[in-house]
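Internal ticket #5521
Category: modeling
Description: The requester needs a full-assembly model to guide mutagenesis choices. All entity lines are attached below as received. Residue total reported by intake: 661.
Assigned to: D.W.
Attached entities:
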Amino acid sequence: MALLKLAVRNLRRNRRRTAITLAAMVIGITGMTALRGFINGQRETMVENVVRGRIGALQVHHKGYVQNVLTSPLQLDMADTPELRKKLADTPHVIAVSPRIEFGAMVSTPDKQPPPEDGSMLPEADQGKTSFFIATAVEPENEAKVTPRRTNLVKVGHMPASPEAPELVLNADFALGLDAKLHEAGAPLPPIEQQLALLAGDRDGALNGENVVLGGTFPSFSPGDKRVGLVPLVIAQRVLRMEGRVTEYGIAVDALSEVDGVKDALQAKLGPDYEVHTWSELFPFIKSLNGTQDFIFSIISAVFLAVVLLGILNAMLMTVLERTREIGTMLAVGMRRRQIIRLFMLEGAVIGTAGVMLGLAVGLALVTWFNHHGIPLPAPGATVDSIVRPYVTSRFIAGIFAGTPLGAALATLWPAWRASRLRPVEALATA
Amino acid sequence: MSHLLDLKGIEKHYELGKTTVTALRGVDLQVERGEFTVVTGPSGSGKTTLLNIIGCLDRASKGSYVLDGVDVSERDFDDLAEVRNQKIGFIFQSFNLIPVLDVAENIEFPCAVRKNPEDAKKLRARVNALAKRVGLEPYLRHKPDELSGGQRQRVAIARALITEPRLVLADEPTANLDSTTSEAIIDLMLELNKEQGVTFLFSTHDPRVVKHAKRALQIQDGKIHDGAGH
């Protein structure tokens, strides 16, 4: 008689108790799977928003740029040459390169009425508005390859047609606050006095400007990013007197898991005058957020696990109590102590296996359903539709699958040990 | 030829709080192979204690015990389990069948838990033969709760005999049976004793069992008195 067969039958003996223990396991494992899936999905959405919506997988700057970004970013620029671009693009796993200039700028909207002929001031409501924003100068076509999520989000209006097109793309709320009018794609440019003015100080501090129109708008990814906009690269270079120069290259890679290797390869190629940063170095809070999430998940998992294993422990203690006489009989006819331990641990492992299979089945079904349908969950203050698509890794599944029956078997260790230590003569005397 | 059982100066004391209770006071007993022996005596006289020590379910506080030429007095727990499995069959008053196993599985259980179990087909053939012998052939796939008391005790007898033991110990085997069934069970055990030469040792109050015994031992106040047999 295989002990396994006996273990399975023993579990079927008190069906209600087994069902309750199993239900606790299924609820626990389903909860853990769903929570892990949600955390993974939310994390991926966040990384997606940062990498493919804002900065790219990596960035290349002049040495010292990141450290001095708040003080003198324009001084730490680079010559934007075809050779450099080729060097970057030819690195393994790099799939796109987007030259950029990050700079502070102002945009002014035109007055709504011509100035009064008597020289008096226009009423405030009719006056144009001027506001500061953080501009990113890009080549639209290349930027669309590095941060497609951002460019794809330009649903109202359009991205600038070319690096020379005098068109801005601003955050929708910012544009609304300015009361800036959208310029239809392909329509002739309005008269200069009805255009926007893009103003910025160059590296020497001189204020320059260009007339532009509002080509399109995009929503906010996160709170605090409302005063932002995209500017065609050539227009920005003219305003900043930085023709042929940029402050950074955004880099897209074919797999985010490769960024560290790509970083090393780029740094080796470019030499000490340049610095290369990965997205996680540029947004370190994501890493710490991930750490916090993992810690919280570990605590919740530990609580789930403790509840489930205590349930098994309790059920097995009850079983030992109820089956004392039977254990005595088994010992009397020659069963050895380690066989008794194995029998009870097998019962734990069997219920653990059944629980993990059912729990994972329900949990994975939930995760798959939500992955398919998505959970609309924009970041607080964001207006971008962030869809969280939960998923779990095969490693997580393997860990749960291997760990739960093992944990269940270990939870039965104490009751099993107690059962094995029974003296047959006393166990047989039990009523 | 040596005795199957040879007990010398067996004492058993129990600690109950601060009090020491003596259940056996220097029991000397020899049992020959093939005997059909009963141990009788009033409740609390020490019958069950003696049978537990003879069955290697408990240890004596003092004295020596040689079973089938092997001194088992100082054996450890697992060794005693091995001795029980190889040399002793048990028949309990309350049958003590394992409820999740069917008749065939209950009978084969002592062989199935051995370190090196025998071939499953051969074992099952022996189980079938033994079940037929004790009149259980039609019930091999029945669970214990589907059987009468007499049938359950037959399963227990078959289970006790499947290991081909030297000794079968029966603790009040007819106590939970009606008179007709008791007679049938006693007859069965007598037949098996004659056919297979297995030594039977009973504790009982039942005069019907005593009537059939070849040797009757009276135990009183932890001391044994060898009485007349039939």
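Resolution: model delivered.
Comment from assignee: Chain A has a mean pLDDT of 89.
Ticket closed.
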